[in-house]
């Protein structure tokens, strides 16, 4: 299975409930799964983190955000407020995947120890692109609705 990344949108009220009771994370995650309110980025999260950092995107939408609860166990889950979601969306919409991948060799990802170890496959960046493009749309929709986003890597 491996370590996979996931994001889901919540209302401001739901975020307050999650902050008060972080153990309800899985309840909310399950409620949004397979809806337009959630997105799974599979194992592409680490490559997106690497590529966006390399491209100078200052908003860390992969490993950033505010901790939801305590570290330990799965995750930990983190969240972005509606204002932060707007900043993430703006940064992502300004940066297409071609810009992220410009000048990147698959060997760069391999040398950086970027998960998963698929960087010997010629279409590996297409795998990352497919998830990045979906995430750009996801954050744009969340920003338009002025909704917070919760994320986890498990």
UniProtKB/TrEMBL annotation:
SUPFAM superfamilies: Hypothetical protein yfbM (SSF111069)
InterPro entries: DUF1877, YfbM-like_sf
Name of protein: DUF1877 domain-containing protein
């Amino acid at each position: 299975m491996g370590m996979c990344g996931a994001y889901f949108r919540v209302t401001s009220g739901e975020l307050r409930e999650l902050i008060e009771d972080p153990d309800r994370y899985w309840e909310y995650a399950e409620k949004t799964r397979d809806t337009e309110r959630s997105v799974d980025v599979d194992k592409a999260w680490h490559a997106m983190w690497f590529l966006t950092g390399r491209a100078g995107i200052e908003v860390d939408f992969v490993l950033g955000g505010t901790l939801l609860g305590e570290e330990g166990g799965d995750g930990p889950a983190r969240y972005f407020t509606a204002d932060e979601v707007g900043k993430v969306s703006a940064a992502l919409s300004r940066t297409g995947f071609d810009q992220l991948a410009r000048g990147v060799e698959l060997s760069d990802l391999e040398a950086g120890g970027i998960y998963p170890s698929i960087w010997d496959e010629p279409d590996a960046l297409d795998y990352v692109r497919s998830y990045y493009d979906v995430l750009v749309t996801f954050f744009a929709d969340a920003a338009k609705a002025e909704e917070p986003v919760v994320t986890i890597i498990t």
